[in-house]
Fold these 2 entries.
Entry 1:
Amino acid sequence: MKKTLLILLTGLFIVTTSARDVYQTQRHSWLEKAEAAKPVLLKTICNPICLLKSVHDSNAFQGWKMERIADMDSLYKVSFKTKKEAIADFGRHLTGNISFRLKAIDNTPDAPVRLKFTFAEVPAELNTPFDPYPGVLSRAWLQDEIMTISQFDDEITIPRRFAFRYMKIELLGASPYFDFSISGITCTATTSAIGITQKLADTTPPVIKEINRVSLETLKECMQSVYEDGPKRDRRLWIGDFYLQSQVNTYSFKNHNLTKRCLYLLAALAADDGQLHADVFETPIPHPQLGVHCLDYSLLFNSTLLEYLKTTNDKETALDLWPVVQNQVKYALGFLNGNNIFDPSVKKESLWLFFDWNDKLDKTVAMQGLLIFTLNNSCQLARLLNKEQEVKEWATISLQMIKAAKKEMFVPKQGVFLSGNQHQLSQLSQVWMILSGALTPSEGQKALKVAIESPISIYPVAPYAYHYLIEAMIKCNMKNEAKKLLIDYWGGMVNKGADTFWEVYDAKNDYLSPYSFYPVNSYCHAWSCTPAYFIQKYPDIFQK
Amino acid sequence: MKKTLLILLTGLFIVTTSARDVYQTQRHSWLEKAEAAKPVLLKTICNPICLLKSVHDSNAFQGWKMERIADMDSLYKVSFKTKKEAIADFGRHLTGNISFRLKAIDNTPDAPVRLKFTFAEVPAELNTPFDPYPGVLSRAWLQDEIMTISQFDDEITIPRRFAFRYMKIELLGASPYFDFSISGITCTATTSAIGITQKLADTTPPVIKEINRVSLETLKECMQSVYEDGPKRDRRLWIGDFYLQSQVNTYSFKNHNLTKRCLYLLAALAADDGQLHADVFETPIPHPQLGVHCLDYSLLFNSTLLEYLKTTNDKETALDLWPVVQNQVKYALGFLNGNNIFDPSVKKESLWLFFDWNDKLDKTVAMQGLLIFTLNNSCQLARLLNKEQEVKEWATISLQMIKAAKKEMFVPKQGVFLSGNQHQLSQLSQVWMILSGALTPSEGQKALKVAIESPISIYPVAPYAYHYLIEAMIKCNMKNEAKKLLIDYWGGMVNKGADTFWEVYDAKNDYLSPYSFYPVNSYCHAWSCTPAYFIQKYPDIFQK
């Protein structure tokens, strides 16, 4: 990570620094603090509740529904050589390790058995052939494992951690000389979501109660020894997901230590120039996905730290990580052109902006908005830490950027921001300019309504983007619209049987996948867990 | 194992014994002695020597030969995402655990990889689709494993022990965002064959030197913490294989402690009525294949113990196990009819006799011969242990059985024994009557020659049966024939590329399998390792 090279040459130290490491003195202590805040995972032994069969149904999500066929004893107490296949239902999404036993039911086992296990978050994962694999991401994310087992009676634990509700077992090989049964299937499920969440008001509509429940299940499953983006895939800490998770956590499980750990981990694993990496890994030792930076994500670190400070009043951590906040802003401001417009062409650097899956989205206005949003939050953080003097120009730049955006990107007649050379109209452009404070609530309402109603406007795709749309609606006092959207979008997933909220959801296309193979989508994904945040934070909108 | 049932009923012990356990007082100490004699395995780190490709060749054994294509660096130093498949050659048969490393060669690994490993004793195992599996034995014996690996840089060890020379690696899944190489493949090979074997005389023909070498490799690979029948399959102690292995061991590695361990294990795990089980397992705790008895195997325990005593002079062990010797004979004598002929119909019990794979073989004469052979060896054992008084009738019965066989089974005109109601002529009938001592060398020669030359005679199939044929030839002073057969049969395997001798070998049919799928045959099999015994024991025949 550190590129400092020490060469001992005839008694002389020559220090070659290929790039100055701006956090050289802090990294070690940041990593130690991240380690000290590592949660002890809560382990729960969960049993499957029944056996299911898959039923093709074109009305069901992705074409498959599951039907209960028998209780577990009809697996546990019969020959698996006869049965050959079974699907167990754990009744809810779990993240953890599976154990089971094989028991000989007649003669002495004289050969290993070969079993295939497939773990699924949604029914279609059990019913879509994985091979030949057409997907973009690694085939190895798919949760099927083949095991050769010689061990009888003892408990066998599959080493790989799975994220799933359904467990399919298939017999691939057995000896003709003995029979056996499978029994004692358990999942040791883990989470660091230990706190008790607040009950909703009795007036809360049932659909919102259900959305809230599924949101919290989603967050709980993603809360492991870091905030993972998805326990099936990618199983790591991404800043964008983290920002949303930590806010839901504030309104639910209140495991603020996990937020602290992730803030420190990201900081400790930043690049030498101070830029955060978009995602980091915990094992075998904490390390970043080297060279992968996402500017909108990096900037959200600042807002995450602000919310953490406001929630916990942990000034020590906020002061410790203040240099990281400064560096993210400093780096982003380097992209401003002479007119205070964020312009990637200013720097000769490759730049990754995310905001949403939609490749068609022009991100210029959104980035202008997110940078203003970040400046405002970072100034608020500075005030809480008595650091205003260090960043006094930020408030000014924020105002200049708003002014510039209104001048260069806003079309007063229509009341909307248009993005890029093609003057693209999109919902997210309005969303981020609203969150930046550039528009009054009534201006914001108008902009959003135009962008939502226009048939040529680019609409959000990922639940991640829908989160900011709802946040913007609430900021513009569009309470009914926010509530309706939450019920339509997340309630849509609930109606389609979601146990946890999905990484990708388009009401019109159950098979949408950014990876060319929908079974490799994550069906328990952090950035989709935010309804609980809205429901708890804005009871006057959602709990009546 | 013990069927004694203790029921505590209102202060009263009711002891229900479904069958008296004849070894009740000894079992525990026998197991302890087996455990005390358990060898510490010699572990050797072995590296693959080069990369190979499979070449279809109708002249090669089972249609495939391997050709060297590159050194290991052409795997270790290149992208495996590009290479996708490799076959490593360890240059010899090994039994042990495989370790390797995955190294990222550009970006940070962001997803698991999915690899398939196939381990093969012979080339066809790499080139014959395993599925859909047509074989009789468990599909799980085939040595292919699919692994999902997230661990980079660290050494990864595949938990399953393999028996193999060739290792194929195939890429089933990887991330588009990083590349990796596979390196540092090693096999930690194990054996309990630690002694140094004696060099052959310089006069030994090269083909016999080679047969001797391959024999010893075969035995070495099968010598683990017991004498296994085959390290790929069935990986356990079978009495029939054990008898042959222990004799080869006497003339090679001289690990007599392993023989002692196996004698005690078999004894400790015998049935309550005293009968030995045909095979036993070591893990998780020593246990027999319950209910599986093979009478010809059981009786060979006695000869194994005799040879052990003659080699080691360990009277303590022989005296300890003397009751087992007596019980095997006693049980077998129960099958004699009034005319001193072994007759399965005497007892109303199912009886398994092996002798050879050949289902057509009538085993009546062979069993008569093997029982006489066992009586003779058991009497010899009794003399060495001063136990003649306990079994004084055995010598008499042996003579009566010879007399009866000559009367009822022998056709003086042709000079051969004919077996069963169909008066079947077979080589093995003559073999076992020769080994029983019923025929003089010249009578034996005549019988064997007739049986070998007759077109309707049943010939041996398994190498196990060929062993006894050679032993019988030597006993009849058919030195040239014995030598020629050894060179033809085992030399045939050597000529076809055997690194170790095979479980099944028919010069005329490379694809022969008793299990309906030749890749599941064992290609390193204990009962085929006996040429080294002959070569060392009879230097005047084989070493010139």
Entry 2:
Amino acid sequence: MENLQSADVVGLFVQLAALLAAARLLGEGMRMLRQPPVVGEILAGIVLGPTVLGHIAPGFQKALFPMEGPSWIAVDGIATVGVALLLFVAGLEIDLGAVRRLGRAAVGTGALALAIPLTLGTALGWLAPGFFGAVTSAGHSPLTFALFFGVALSIAAMPVIAKTLIDLDLFRTDVGMVVMSAATFNDLVGWIAFSIVLGMMGGEAHGASSVWVTIALTLGFTAACMTLLRAAVHAVLPWIQSRMSWPGGVLGFVLVLALLASAATEAMGIHAMFGAFLAGVAVGDSVHFRERTRETIHQFVTNAFAPIFLAAIGLKVDILAHFDGPLVATVFALACAGMIGGASLGARWGGFPPREALAIGLGMNSRGAMEIILGLLAFQAGLIRETMFVALLLMAVGTSVMSGPLMKRALGLGNRKQLMDLLRPALYVKDLGAVSSRRAIDVLAGLASKAAGLPPERIADEVWRREEEVGTGLGQGIALPHARIPGLKRPVLVVGRSAEGIPFSSPDQAPSHLVLLLLSPADDPVGHLETVASLTRRLHDPATREAVHRAATFDELRAAFATAPEHGAMAKVAVS
Amino acid sequence: MENLQSADVVGLFVQLAALLAAARLLGEGMRMLRQPPVVGEILAGIVLGPTVLGHIAPGFQKALFPMEGPSWIAVDGIATVGVALLLFVAGLEIDLGAVRRLGRAAVGTGALALAIPLTLGTALGWLAPGFFGAVTSAGHSPLTFALFFGVALSIAAMPVIAKTLIDLDLFRTDVGMVVMSAATFNDLVGWIAFSIVLGMMGGEAHGASSVWVTIALTLGFTAACMTLLRAAVHAVLPWIQSRMSWPGGVLGFVLVLALLASAATEAMGIHAMFGAFLAGVAVGDSVHFRERTRETIHQFVTNAFAPIFLAAIGLKVDILAHFDGPLVATVFALACAGMIGGASLGARWGGFPPREALAIGLGMNSRGAMEIILGLLAFQAGLIRETMFVALLLMAVGTSVMSGPLMKRALGLGNRKQLMDLLRPALYVKDLGAVSSRRAIDVLAGLASKAAGLPPERIADEVWRREEEVGTGLGQGIALPHARIPGLKRPVLVVGRSAEGIPFSSPDQAPSHLVLLLLSPADDPVGHLETVASLTRRLHDPATREAVHRAATFDELRAAFATAPEHGAMAKVAVS
């Protein structure tokens, strides 16, 4: 019996901690810059790997990540499980219903966003394999490489796209719906195409007839997952949820399913992650699969497993040493031209005006982690050189970073303020004391005046007029005086607290210990209502109210709001 | 760069799937027998390992679990991370406040439940190391073995104990509170004592002075975690929760903390899991650490990581080949005598009457997975023979299984019916049709009659009398007619549905499509109210109402109730 020795265990835990810490920190940093966290998680590996740390302190880097021996095997095993679970979660998000309901615009966008980059990549990969980093000596056929390059240019990254749309508040618009439906279609078909390429790579080792066997197996397995497995899961979920512990029973069941499907596809010569993806699609399609189970898996995978996998990628390559300028520029240009061009054309054909069609193309252009995973597999299988892997990695990071800002520009959007952006230490009064509601409003209006760029009396008068019409005490010790103010440029939220309580008129007649003064521009009634709704929804949760009242500092108060449950359909993709 | 090859990846996924599937299935089986799931999860490994599968199909067993090579190293790595996270979760559950507030009874119970088995085990381990399976040739001092045996008899398993108390509905009683406080104290002190024994084992390799260094390091690290780390976590959590994504930021932070603490203790020569446990105590003590984060970690660890670790234990030992009858019987008898005796004496001293003191002792006696983990570490470190490991494993399983039934007997409790036990296919009417509310009650009362052992007219009349006093329509298409009936032995719940709707009087005047007829014994008003509350609480959730109305079969209806959110303080331990 072989076991990890004590030194291996130390190494394993230190490597996992370093990868997870760096990935989460840089991921959060990117989030603060309004960029997709996945970009930071990939950068973390580049920082910890040969590219940065390996150049600064090669001995230390090598000691931290030996890349061989039992501790590294264990890290690699965990990262492998991590990428399978990441694809399982991506599969859960696929809405087959949306694919079935696809309108003309979404069909055109999805089909052209796949077909054009696929054709472009396959043609160029066939014509100039040497330039595009094909390993010519490895015995792979030129067609395999050409198809790989086509697929690598054409798969979009749904989770990153969804996150970008949510950030821009476009998720529920026409543009957003078309992008999401098209990306779903693109993801599903693209992964099937990629699994065929993988099958060809695997099959070549055993001769030409074996390639067709693998392709047939892939298509057969896909069909079986989409029909038999999907029906079986749908039939068995109610039984599991009614007889077994909740959510332990269903959690164990779907994880076992994901692991078995992974093992099956890996054994067929495709990668484990493809099976996990199909298992995710089959599970996620059942209406019996409940939100809380999805949420638990999603949180743990996106915040623990996926960052470890994503950061581990950067350990495997020295970007500086394998940076080929012309190749990087060409791959990047082809990827953008193919995807933006294809998706925009499709959207135009579907009837969108030019600006919005362009925005749809820019939205589809995010590659997230998907192209990197493809590149890593091809690199490890000896199909492409390190230079091409680096080019794909940089293309994926670049397209993900530029998607949001360019879409915003194409549509002429401003920065939308989120509730959490409004809570600022400078707009906080620790203790208003035992004063009248009028006096409290005056004090808070005085504080708001500078941020609002308006005289305090005008603010106070507007708020007070509203307050006299209808009391804004919400009950349970909280008041939310508010007004829409002509001439105000952007919303302002001032927070005051009072140990003694302030007599705002409220349903339960109790004095208010927390006063939230909200000012919104008069010409943005929707934004105003959304902020009010966001505040009251959070304060509706008893645990949040308790945390709010208990908060001793501004940070604790802010944390109480940040961690409050925000119910709604978007919650499930908000962390991607 | 070493990577897992395709065959290793297949092996890894198949092994994980087999371990998880067997562990969850047997765990659920145990749950249905009202036994702790952890027992089933341990049995799963015994079934898949050399003890059962290895005797039936040795070639297949060896192919499935080769116990060597990259795929096994990866499984072992995941199991190692799993046990560290399991202890981290156990640490999160430690309520330092409860330890500080300990009353006389809890102090006595905790102290004697630790001291008596510890003394007993140490003394006998010192006197007869050979009989108790000490490895005399390995260079460990006799004192190390004696202390190990003492500790192995004296640590209680808090999660199993909590689950048993909840099942018996004793969690919030005096008996339950004393057992939980004493178990918390016992867990905390017991693990510190065990880490010292581990330090002694590790230190011996480097000479006697090194033993003291390790002990000093252990105590210093423990003190640092309980003071500095605890304060730092408490100070930094609001900042993280207010600035970073939620719950991703805090999830990543606490996992990194757990991994680093694990690496630190492993490097000191104690086991990684001790560091994870202390990190859990430090994190769980902060009021800023929110329930949802705890819940996400808890669900994923108890349903994915822990079962894999627990099942992997059984792979490492052939119980039949190393079964030493006298040793097993003696260890079992000593463990029970020490723990039940010690805890009962302490509870008597604290003022509990004999029956309840005995119940407290029986409650503390569950060993769960903890003694098995201790035994495994000692076995792998060469301190004990396989026979002793088997004896500890069987003792842990045996004490966990017998705790619930014996407590019930000592206190003279009956089986308490849970809501989910009341929902039975025989008490379900698929379509009542378009009838009056009186007629619907008659039909449901007829069905209830056999289960209740009472004539249908008497039931229908009682329910109708109540119905005429006050309409029991809850609104939203659901009615809950109910009555407390003299002479009824146990509660009965009959469920009827109606596609057309039945005119029960309800706040929204809407007809009822789901009718829940609840009958409770007249002499159990509390049980009646609890069932009503449990039903209405679940139906208060919009997603549950939707699932209930959509359910096409009885299983789907039952699943809708089973997966409904049940808010309450007990939720967090209910899955242990």
